[in-house]
Design goal:
The complex is a heterodimer of chains A (263) and B (336). Chain A is α/β, with parallel strands linked by helices. Chain A contains 9 helices and 10 strands. Chain A starts with a helix and ends in a 7-residue tail after the last helix. Chain B folds into 2 domains: 87 residues; 205 residues, MetI-like fold, CATH 1.10.3720. Classes of the chains: A alpha/beta (263), B mainly alpha (336). Chains A and B meet through β6, α4, α6 and α7 of A and α9 and α10 of B.
Chain lengths: 263, 336
């Protein structure tokens, strides 16, 4: 069972991520507001890395940089040893909000990445496959306003998976779901990651979620975000919430976030 | 363990509330309407006119055919759902029969109201039976002029609106011009336009286009400018080109605003059409109104007003139909 986590490490399916000494910030009312300070991290192909930190510390900013939506002020971002200069469908983001296009059906939302690259005609089956993976085949023709929150988020996951991403960037993808849907989707994420072997970079507020899903949990400090600790979670899947090692890591992570004593 | 048992959302069934009520339509009221219209026919034909009128027989005939038709529908309605559907308008048909009776009595039969300001129903009918050629020609010219001007104005306004919402550089140059010139009513340009353009037709086309373009440009602009940046982020991470972002993200997202702009533009284009036809163009319904007034032909004026109302209403209906098709994804659209 321990081998499962390593089986997912497949150099063809997953991308290697190398973040080198990133500084980033924003101009706010004429002042410079530093958000990321000397952040460096590496993820091997097929690794599931969770980024944990206080709210508003800059984790999401880091994800935008990795996705290529923004350029860092200083430092380098390399994916498979190639500098990130802009967005690319091999690095897909799943946002906290599903941000489905309300004027498109679920199927047409999921097919977006193929359409932008002119691949839709030959690869229609990939859309059906992706909707099947997230269990939404029956809702292919539904419009987003007809979906529940969990279904909408699964549709946005399908929209990402259609592109066969090598690096999946998750920005609190389960943050707005109710706790039951959230538990089920955590299981689905693990299953998809194991089946596809892509590298995952996930931001979350939820310590338990990070420890349940990831190979490594990186803990950030408050803004400007610096890396506090890099915890390795060497447990087999499926993981159990009450595993002693998990409880120990949980205490450690909460301590790093400044919540040690009371928990 | 992987699939989540989620109940299908019960919102999925049509969210649009149509006005149609489901109560069984009274076939009895349909029969009443039929009898009333037969009574109208009897009154028109049997009671001699106090005014000098030519189309009394035609009016009586229309009432007779309508009354008989309604009675037949009331009978067939017991077997046919489609005939029974006419029952929905039965209350209106009853009210119309009563109104026409009153109108007929105070005009044609008793001559109580002064002519030519209050023509009788048969004088109204006479407009359509005797002057349909000129009226039809006017309608055609009005529609052609309106459609031409509206199409040009809509195309220009839309492109300007998208450009304003998308590109700050375009905004820098167009925005001040639009702020100063846009709110000016298109009719204010009328004297100048008739002077500059070679024909009154081209001048009117320009004015109608102007009246359409301004509200559409403003609404399209605000629609495009208001698109969530997250929509662009999603498309960009999926490899979208700027072209894709404009055509497949910005424009569809702005479409609800665009239709509000088209609706406003169509409304102001009606106003400009009528004024332009009254003042310069030698054809069209506006011209017909002016012409009828010159001859004190008030029946013709009322007749032309009705045609104009139907034309405007039909064009608005067509616009709403198009919107319903293109914006089927929206919840809770207002029914026209």
């Amino acid at each position: 069972m321990v081998a499962l986590a390593h089986k997912a490490v497949d150099s063809i399916a997953g991308a290697a991520l190398d973040v080198r000494n990133i500084d980033h910030g924003f101009a706010l009312h004429g002042d410079y507001l530093p958000v990321l300070e000397d952040v460096s991290l590496r993820a091997s192909p097929g690794e599931f890395v969770a980024l944990l930190g206080p709210s508003g510390c800059g984790k999401s900013t880091l994800l935008r940089l990795v996705a290529g939506l923004d350029r860092p002020r200083r430092g380098h971002l390399l994916v498979d040893d190639v500098e990130v200069l802009g967005p690319d469908p091999s690095r897909v983001v799943v946002f906290q909000d599903p941000t489905l296009y309300p004027w498109r059906t679920v199927w047409r939302n999921a097919s977006l990445g193929l359409e932008t690259r002119g691949l839709l005609k030959q690869h229609k089956h990939r859309v059906d496959d992706a909707l099947g993976l997230v269990g939404l085949q029956k809702f292919a023709k539904a419009y987003p306003h007809q979906l529940s929150g969990g279904m909408a988020q699964r549709a946005s996951l399908a929209r990402a998976l259609v592109n066969d991403p090598r690096l999946l960037i998750l920005d609190e993808p389960l943050g707005k779901l109710d706790s039951l849907t959230r538990l089920a989707m955590q299981g689905e994420l693990t299953r998809l990651w194991q089946a596809r072997g892509f590298t995952v970079l996930m931001v979350t507020h939820d310590v338990e979620e990070a420890l349940l899903l990831a190979n490594r949990v990186i803990v950030f400090s408050d803004r400007p975000a610096r890396i506090r600790a890099d915890l390795s979670v060497d447990l087999p899947f499926p993981r159990h919430r009450d595993h002693p090692e998990l409880l120990r890591l949980r205490r450690e992570a909460l301590g790093l976030l400044g919540l040690g004593g009371d928990w | 363990m992987t699939s989540i048992a989620e109940a299908a959302p019960n919102r999925s069934s049509g969210a649009v509330l149509a006005g149609g009520d489901e109560r069984p339509h009274s076939l009895g009221l349909l029969a009443v309407a039929g009898i009333l219209w037969l009574a109208v026919a009897a009154l028109v034909l049997a009671w001699p006119d106090a005014q000098e009128l030519e189309r009394t027989g035609t009016l009586g005939g229309i009432a007779l055919v309508l009354g008989a038709g309604l009675l037949i529908a009331a009978v067939i309605g017991r077997f046919s759902v489609r005939a029974a559907a006419i029952g929905r308008v039965a209350p209106w048909l009853v009210a119309l029969a009563l109104a026409i009776t009153a109108w007929e009595i105070v005009t044609a039969k008793l001559d109580l109201l002064p002519l030519p300001f209050f023509p009788s129903p048969q004088a109204f009918v006479e407009v359509y039976t005797d002057d349909w050629r000129r009226l039809g020609d006017s309608l055609l010219n009005s529609v052609l002029l309106l459609v031409r001007g509206f199409a040009i104005g809509a195309a220009v306004g839309f492109v300007i609106g998208v450009a304003l919402g998308w590109s700050p550089k375009v905004g820098y140059w167009i925005h001040p011009i639009m702020r100063v010139v846009g709110p000016l009513p298109a009719t204010a340009w009328l004297p100048l336009a008739f002077f500059i353009f070679p024909t009154s037709g081209s001048a009117s086309t320009f004015l109608i286009a102007l009246a359409t373009a301004f509200p559409l440009a403003v609404l399209t602009w605000s629609g495009v400018a208001g698109v969530q940046t997250a929509y662009y982020d999603v498309a960009r991470t999926l490899g979208a080109s700027p072209r894709f972002l404009i055509l497949k993200v910005a424009i569809p997202a702005a479409l609800p605003h665009v239709f509000v702009g088209l609706f406003m533009g169509l409304g102001s284009s009606f106003a400009v059409l009528v004024v332009a036809e009254m003042l310069g163009v030698k054809s069209g319904l506006g011209w017909y109104l002016q012409w009828a007034q010159g001859w004190a032909a008030y029946a013709n004026m009322y007749g032309a007003l009705l045609v104009m109302a139907l034309m405007c209403s039909t064009l608005i209906t067509l616009l709403f139909r198009l919107r319903d098709r293109l914006l089927a994804w929206q919840k809770g659209l207002v029914k026209w």
